[in-house]
Structures are given as C-alpha cells and as structure tokens.
Amino acid sequence: QKEVEQDPGPLSVPEGAIVSLNCTYSNSAFQYFMWYRQYSRKGPELLMYTYSSGNKEDGRFTAQVDKSSKYISLFIRDSQPSDSATYLCAIFNQGGKLIFGQGTELSVKP
Amino acid sequence: ETGVTQTPRHLVMGMTNKKSLKCEQHLGHNAMYWYKQSAKKPLELMFVYSLEERVENNSVPSRFSPECPNSSHLFLHLHTLQPEDSALYLCASSQNHRPQGELFFGEGSRLTVL
Fold this sequence. Notes:
heterodimer; B: mainly beta; globular
C-alpha cells in the first residue's frame, strides 16, 4: 500500500465553486500534513500545513485532517482562475521524510 | 532574486551526451535535495545533502551523479541517460535535514532524452 494516495484528476470547476481536494494515507502515526501548490512551469510552494487533527483556515483555504479515517482535505472557497494549479499533499512519515501524493490538477474556468 | 535557482530550465540531450544541472540556493539553508517529477507520479526523492554531505541516495541509477561543493550549490551530472529519464528535475532546500521542515523548490529543469 502506498503511504500517500491522491487522485490526479484533472478537476475542472467554474469560478466561484467550492473545491475539495483529498488525500489518504496509510499510517495512523503520521502527524504533520502539508499542501503544496504548483503552478504550470514552476516548482511547488508550500500553501498550508497542519499538525494532528482538526481544521486550519487561511483566507479562502481550509486544510482539514481526519486521523480516524486517515484522510486529509484542502477546501478552496470562492475559487478563482488564479487557483488553477496542481495541488500536492505531503506527509511526514515516521522516518521524518516528506512523502508526496501524485498531485491533483485543478482548473478553474472563468 | 528567487530563493532557489535552477539552470538550465530546459535541456534536450541524446543518450550518449553528458550534461549537468545546476542549483543554487540563497536562503542560508543546510540541506539540499534533488527530486524527479514525472507526469501523474508522486515526486521521487533522488538525493539529499546535509551540510555538503550526501545523506541519502534512493537507489538512483549511477547515470545520475550528484555533487555538492558547498552548502549553496548542488549539481546533478547526467550521462548515458535513457528516454524514461525524461522528466522535470526539481532542486529544493530546507533549513535542516533532520527534522525536515518546509521545502523550498526551484522552478525545475525540464529534461528530454532523445
């Protein structure tokens, strides 16, 4: 079983929609979770990180961790064309390594 | 000036060529990384350097040879590559290697092997 799994998409939504991006992970001991955003022809950049369970909000973005289900989510409210990018979840495994999901390609249409 | 700079941005090479990718970080970090990014696949960690010492080599073929002459510079030397090595190669840096914190990535070098 892969340590982190993410649906690669692509996901296409109209402007203003609420977007839900998700990852599952294999080990309930994992505690640090990150979301990176990668624009076309650019390197990934850290968008948000969370520790343990619960929600974290930053503007239009909310990161959510459900440890009981081993499921993490990134919600984007009022999505904009400028949000079009690939979103990668990343999780620190027990060895202290950052393990990335495949990335979900998101397109927000005007 | 961006934090992590990679050159060249694009590279096309034949299977018998020898080329090098260069990475420079201006963030004062102690750890530097090479990742391979292929379509629809997770980022693959290739090499990790901490304070100029290679601390990780994830079963990467010997046709990829890293070099870290100082804490700000990282190279990836390429020779006799295969077409399946075509990918985006990303350099990254972080404050430390253990524990590994936020990674700062360069824009990548897009490699095409003919």
